[in-house]
Design brief:
Helix content is 64%, strand content 2%. The protein is mostly helical. The chain starts with a helix and ends in a 12-residue tail after the last strand. 25% of the residues are buried.
């Protein structure tokens, strides 16, 4: 090996050693920086769960300097990144509600604000009044129509608009336990273009109390089967809902027959009930005894909370 080759080999080895030393030094520096960041890391503090002061839309619109759409997008991105799943106390609103309410004032034609906001507030944050207000606000916008906008606006930016009244019906049924209001919005959903066939069939069923009871019970049983394994508390709430509908439906049917009987007899006294029942003990689906009431209607000994808006 010549002298030049020996020198060249030595330079290569020196260079390789230098590169290894740099790599080790870089690794040590990264390790030190990592530890430094960990020591200085601030503990994550969850955002305030409740807020009582709403935004002033006009003031925000003025301060945005005609960049309302950018601000709406920023509000959405802010709340999409919120990792908090805390429920709010009754009578209070989550900060998300005020942000979405403000966004819907700045951009009332933004369909997803109402639909996504309604679901998130009711399911994730348990802000039921906030969800109801936002969804009804969306329904008001939908009912106004889009006559002053391009003809294809609704098709492009409000696709499947039937989902809005269907979501509102869901909230009324499973969160507020108001069957008549739920039936009303299920019917509205079925009347929108593109609505699934099952919603159109519900429109027919929801035209009578009998149909409301029957379909409401089916919906509750379906929802309860989904919750049974995952959400014990929700399953119990749905069990109470099922109980109320079953008992109310039975009392409705018995009272309908009882009223027809009274019309024929032209009296609804207690002794007529004994004749109507044939002297046998009549019971509801939970074993409660049906009996005559001073109001001349038929009640039950079973304790239950009647479904709001329903006759029983």
């Amino acid at each position: 090996m010549s002298t030049n080759e020996v020198h060249l080999q030595g330079h290569r080895e020196l260079g390789l050693g230098f590169e290894c030393a740099l790599a080790v030094l870089g690794f040590l520096v990264l390790a030190w920086m990592n530890q430094a960041f960990v020591r200085r890391e601030v503990a994550w503090v969850p955002p305030v769960n409740e807020r009582e002061i709403p935004w002033n839309p006009e003031a925000v619109r003025f301060l945005s300097m005609s960049h309302e759409s950018t601000l709406v997008d920023a509000l959405l991105l802010k709340n999409m990144g919120d990792p908090s799943y805390q429920s709010v106390s009754k009578g209070s609103h989550a900060p998300l509600y005020y942000d979405l309410d403000l966004a819907s004032e700045l951009d009332p034609d933004f369909f997803e604000l109402y639909l996504m906001g309604g679901w998130t507030l009711s399911i994730q944050r348990n802000d039921l009044q906030g969800a109801l207000h936002l969804l009804q606000k969306g329904m008001n916008r939908l009912e106004k129509g889009f006559a002053n906008l391009p003809t294809d606006f609704e098709e492009k930016f409000w696709p499947q608009s039937w989902r809005l009244p269907m979501t509102l019906a869901y909230v009324y049924l499973f969160e507020f336990h108001q069957l008549p209001e739920a039936a009303r919005y299920y019917r509205l959903a079925g009347q929108h273009p593109g609505a699934p066939d099952f919603l159109k069939r519900l429109d027919i069923r929801f035209q009578t109390f009998e149909g409301i009871y029957e379909t409401g019970l089916r919906l509750v049983l379906f929802q309860r089967s989904n919750y049974r394994a995952l959400h014990g508390e929700e399953s119990l709430k749905l069990a109470d809902e099922e109980r109320a509908i079953r008992i109310g439906w039975e009392l409705y049917r018995v009272n309908q027959k009882w009223e027809d009987y009274c019309k024929k007899k032209r009296t609804c006294l207690k002794q007529e009930w004994e004749a109507f029942s044939g002297g046998r003990k009549m019971t509801d689906p939970y074993g409660g005894v049906l009996h005559w009431l001073p109001s001349k209607k038929i009640g039950t000994t079973t304790l239950y909370e009647p479904t709001l808006g329903m006759p029983y």
